[in-house]
Structure formats: C-alpha cells, structure tokens
C-alpha cells in the first residue's frame, strides 16, 4: 500500500479551476508526448524546454512561473485580492439588501439607500482588511520555514523556495533534499532516492544519467528521472525541472484520489453552526414577511426589515474571526519559536491527546560523542575505528550525527584509501556499506545496527587484527558486551568488513550491493554517548498533566531507549519492538496502545502503522520527528511536528516547525491552540445566544407593534457596531482551567447554549418592550431609539458573562475586549445626541433621562439573569467536557 492510499492530507493539489486553466504540458506538444520525459535525449529535452545547463534567467523564470503557476501540489491556489474582496458581495443577503434599498431610494428618499450602502461597504471592508492582514501574517510565517532548493539562475546557484521553480529550471540536489518536481537527471553521482511516497517501496532506488530509459509500465522505475515528493538518500545530482505542481506524478495521483483534503472536525463544526443559524434565519424571515404582509404593511419596508434581520442574524464574520484568532495564535507561537504552516493545525494541536516523538534531539541533547571503538570483548580496537572512519568519510548519504561523531573523534590518515562504490543507508536494513580499495585490495566496510551486524557476520576479528571463527560461545560473548553497553545507556554501531581476499565474491568487484552484506568479519563496536536532556522528564510530565500522553517511537534499540527513560525519570509502562509489531494484528495493536509508551527498533512503515492505529482508537495524535524516516508518520499524524534543521521531506510533511528542537515548546503550542479554540467558541456562543435572542425578539415584536421595532438601517448599524466590538474576542484572556485538557470543538454545547440563552435574552427583551410602550409611552422613533440602545448595550456587555465559566468578576477580560465593548456602548448611547442632525438620518430621537435610569437597572437585571443561568447551565453540563484519553 502506498502512503497516498492511506492518507493524503498534505499532498492534495488544488483541482484546476475555471479561472486557472491547466497550463500547457511542460514538455511541449512535440513527440514523444509530455509523459515520457525519460524517453528523449537530455539535449533534446533541454532544447524543447528552451533552457541550458546554466539555468534560466530571472526574467525567464518569472514569466514561466506566471504561466505554469507555483510549484505546489499541496497548497490551495491563492485567490487574487480583488476577487477575495468581490466575493464578499456574492452573499445573497447583501444583494437583496442593496436592491431593495435601491428600489426604495427611487420611490422614497435616497438617504436610506446611501446609509445602507455605506454600512454594507464598511462591513465588507472591515471584514476584508482583518482577514487579509491575518492571512498575510500567516503566509510570511510559513514562508520563513519554506523548503528551499539550489537553482541555477543567470548562471549562478541561488537558493529559492521550491514553490518558485518552473519547468526549465536547473536544480542541484544533495543528500537529504526533497526532489522539488518531476525532473530529468543531467548529472549524477551515486544517486539514490527514496520513492516510498510514490511507490510504497522502502528501499532506496538508484538513479543515474542515461539518454533514454524505459518507464512505460512503471514510471517510478525509470532510472534517469526523479519525481516530486521523493527524497535524496545519498549522492548528488543536477536535474532539469520538467513537470511542476499538480502536473507532477504526485500531483496527478493526488488529484485522482481526492479533490479536497478531508475537512477537519473544527471546520465541520464551524460549518454546522453556520447551517444551524441559517435554518433559523430562513424560518424567521418567512415568518416576519408573512406577518407583515398579513398586517398589510408596506412591502418594500417589510422586505428591507426582514433582510436586515437576516444580516443581523448570520454570523458573517465567523470565518474572519476564526482566521484572526488562529493567526493571532500563530503569531504567539512564533514568539515561542513554533512556526505554524497549516493554520487549522492550531485547533488540532489543542485537541491532541497523544504525542509520539522520536528520541534523538527531543529526549536527548543530540550532541553525540564517540567515546571508544572496541572489539567484541571490549578492548580498544584501532582496526575497527579505521573501518568506521573510512565508511563515514566516503559515504555520501545524509550525514547522521553518528557519522559526524566518528569523523570528529580523532584524525585518521586516509592516504591510500580509494572509494569504489557505496550501498547507502536506509532505515530498513539500518546500515551503510562502502567498497574501498587499499594497497591494491578491495574490501567492503560496513557499519550499522549492532545486533544485525553481528547476525550477518561469520568470522570475528579482535583488536590485534587476528581473524577467528565465530562460534556460538564467542557470539554470546560479543552479545553480552553489546548488552552491557546498552544497559549503561551507550548507543552502539556494529562494525564489520568483508575483504576481497576473504571470499571470491568481492575479489574484483566495482559495485557495492546490499546482498554482499553477509558472511562478514565482525570487527567491533563504535560506542557513543547521547546524553538525555535534563529537562525532558519534567516536560513529559507537564504534557501528561495537560492530558497529552507521550510515547517514544524510535529506530534505536530497547536497552538504549529504556536507559533514556530511566535517566529522565519517566517510567516505561509497556514496550513493543518492531519485530513484535510485525507479528500482531491490528486489533491486538490497538489493544496494547494505551499501556505502551515505548516503541523501539521501529522502521518508517511501522511508525506509520502505529500512528494510524492510534488514530483508529479515536485519539488525536501528534508526531514529532526530523528524519526522512519520519515523513510517513508526519503525514499520517493529525499534527505533524518537525524541527528547523530536519530533512526537507520531514519539514515539507509537517504542520508545525519548531525553531528549536525542544519538547517544551510543544507544550506552549498546545496551550496556545486550546486558547484559540476557546476564543472562537466565545464568539460563537455570543452569536448563538445574545445576538440571536435579540434578533428573535425583534421578529416577535413585529407581531405586537403597530410599527417596526427597529428600522432596517438601525438594524444594520446595530450589527456593524456589534461586529466591530467582537473583533477583540481573539485577543481575550482565557481562564487557565479551560485549557488543562485537550479540547475538541463541541457543537452540542453550542446548540444547548443557544436554546437556553436565546430565550433568557428574549424574556428580558419583552420586558423592555413593555416598559417602552407603557412606561415611557414611546412613539415609533423613541421606541426604536430606546430599543437600539438597549439592544447594543446588552448584546455587547453580556460578553463579560459569556467569556468565562466563572462568576464574571472572577475572570479578568482582555484590555482590548473591555475597551471595544465600552466604546460600543458609548457609541450607541451617543448616536441619538449627535449634533447636525446626524441622529436623524438614522431615525433616532434623544431619549429622556429617565430612560437611562431604566437602562442601567434593566441591563443589570439582564446580566444578573444571564450570570445565574450560566452557573446553572455549566453545573448541569459539566460532565460533557472531553477528558484526556490515554
Ligand atoms: N550513519 C549511520 N551508519 C550506520 N548505521 C546507522 C547510521 N545512522 C543510523 N544507523 C542505524 O540505524 C538505526 C536507526 O536510525 P535512527 O536511530 O536515526 O532512527 P530514528 O528512528 O530516527 O531514531 P531516533 O528516535 O533516535 O531519532 C540506528 O539505531 C543505527 O543502528
Ligand atoms: Mg530520528
């Protein structure tokens, strides 16, 4: 099974839209066709793509980029700003509103049309500006961690984001790089790529320059091309970019599998809430219109009133509020050195209740030191060191910290050693071989996972260089030496050789192949110290306290991993090795998950399998890793987390990038994610209760009043003021107790909240209507003015109750929120008193002083009622909060 069949979260290209027709195939229309970039000679391909080995010029690259679009199969196409702006007018409510007010302008005065048009414009501009600013902030964060490629422009090698590549670009690749697009090899040395993302094949595939290659039945097998989404395991290459973005094989595969990434819980929840409100709105509008027609009121005014009500009811700012909240959260995380690549990951990280992590760099310092190189009985072995050194020096794969430790341990004279070939490292066999010539003799020098190295050896070479047979007793001795190292917390690599004169097979060979890694002469161990991080234990305990179970998933062996746990003071509750994992069923694995917190000798496919099993249990799972071997798991996780120095594929697959490899910052991200969800929830609860209640009462009032309870313009103005005040919600403080556990979006809570607090607000509204009519003997204008002021005052101030589950004065609101809401109240009260008859435009009159006495008493009564209802509400629904699953 390939990765794409299992999960396609991060590799989905946008479907071609009408506005962005698929650009002409990169490799022109001449024959052979565009799909066979492995068939033509390189020189013809270069000519057809109108490029040369020195690369495109900057101007050429710019025009090609404009033609073919960004090289990005995963990202949604960016909509131009003017369209983002205009799209906001596609809202049918806005269209009806503008038409109806236009018609009324023709028949009556132009004033109301102008006012409505201005209010609509203000609302749209406000929404647009906030939204675009938030998106820009996030885009620049994302750009700061984009994967770069070395490309030749104007004849010099420069580094550009891979999204900026176009057909015809010439790119240089080294080990660890992500192949940015489907490309033809122009030059290569010892090039091996991992194509697991395309083919599911875990072993490195060798690629080399040739004029033509066959690839009809299996394009991934074509040896002279490399494909987008694969990564370089070892060697170097210069490539010609041929097919970018969604035209790459990966892009095509992804398009044919699914059009869109699956919506997250959060997105679904938001959509469901909007639908809920829409249904209420439709019913209400039909009702209001029917009543007005039945009472024979002016049709046009009735329509305007109904539509204004609908505008007031719809949470049209919700998408913007969500974006602003998440973007603000992303900015906060950036300060804590966490860069958010996918905005919706903020919600997922807040909901995460299991975090899987690899070991090196997160639980350990990643300052690996080579302590000794010993033979099987523990004696210092210069021989084994020389094999290890030569192996590390000559291998062209991604330099692992182990290689760096070997090379920096002490100088070694490489004179006389000549590299013939290598079999690069991969995470399945966990070893690397180089074929070397020295003194006219050839030999294979191998290093890798120690237990496998011992198993594959037939003879044994001690520190003095004497080669002996490897009988069962000696094997057991060597194993005991290895176990001793592990128990002391040392990491070890096994070292072996296979000299040309030892078997005929290697005598004159010029190729290193993995099948030669057998019948070897075991030479000893390289012993490393990778000290555990002092802070790791406390960090893990903090995460567990926050409801996030931490599990170690590592390619290293059990003894070493157990030792790390012991050092950082975290108990091992259960162990599963890769070997055992391969023998158990899906059900058995899921059954073992809750108590297992250590998975060792796990290969990349197994990491992926573990992640899927955790998801299948219903947990929200994060994965933290930095290697090529972690990419499949990063794709599969709900939240993929990587670090700045990670391999390109890992960074490309991740949703969050840590600028420092520290588990503690994950804890910060979790808290920020939860706070963001809480603030979005506040906005939704406001909309679902007080705003909803007000509009509902207004509809009811049309039944009993001989005139409209509020003029359409006033409703729109009310809505604008309310919306502007609520834009402070993303910046509000969050009560600490609401973020101690993972939070999932809870639509049930919102529905119940609406059913309780809508009516609470309505009861109070009808009391106000009664007072206006029978106490103040209000006529039309005074009634509308009074109701306008009350409506804003109560709608905005209630945020101080709804924002917290505590008694309102026990929780400190954000300053911005306080200022904005008090300002909204001041504006509402001040409007009718404005000079130059401004209030009159909106149909306001100045209310008598006694009204304000009533306003204060009534508002306090309302807030008191909400506060009591709130305490009761949460007392009876407190059992519904999601608890941390282990
Ligand atoms: N450069 C190398 N040469 C030979 N063998 C290696 C090399 N790097 C790693 N190995 C072997 O492969 C195993 C798995 O690699 P590695 O430890 O990097 O996996 P991992 O899952 O990323 O582990 P971690 O959780 O520590 O990051 C190692 O334990 C070691 O035995
Ligand atoms: Mg690793």
Key traits:
886 residues; alpha/beta; Calcium-transporting ATPase, cytoplasmic transduction domain A; Rossmann fold; Calcium-transporting ATPase, cytoplasmic domain N; 4 domains; 8-stranded mixed β-sheet; disordered N terminus; disordered C terminus; binds adenosine-5'-triphosphate; binds magnesium ion
Care to describe what's here?
The structure is a single chain. This protein folds into four domains: 3-82 and 149-257, Calcium-transporting ATPase, cytoplasmic transduction domain A, CATH 2.70.150; 338-365 and 533-659, 3-Layer(aba) Sandwich (Rossmann fold), CATH 3.40.50; 369-529, Calcium-transporting ATPase, cytoplasmic domain N, CATH 3.40.1110; 673-880, Calcium-transporting ATPase, transmembrane domain. The chain contains 31 helices and 23 strands. Strands 8-23-22-21-9-18-20-19 form an eight-stranded mixed sheet, sandwiched between helices. Strands 10, 11, 12, 13, 14, 15, 16 and 17 form an eight-stranded mixed sheet that branches. Strands 1, 2, 3, 4, 5, 6 and 7 form a seven-stranded antiparallel sheet that branches. Bound molecules: adenosine-5'-triphosphate and magnesium ion (MG). Residues 358-360, 400, 402-403, 425, 430-432, 447-449, 493, 554-556, 627, 629 line the site of adenosine-5'-triphosphate. Belongs to the cation transport ATPase (P-type) (TC 3.A.3) family. Type IIIB subfamily. The chain crosses the membrane at residues 93-126, 276-296, 302-327, 753-776, 782-802, 822-844, 850-873.
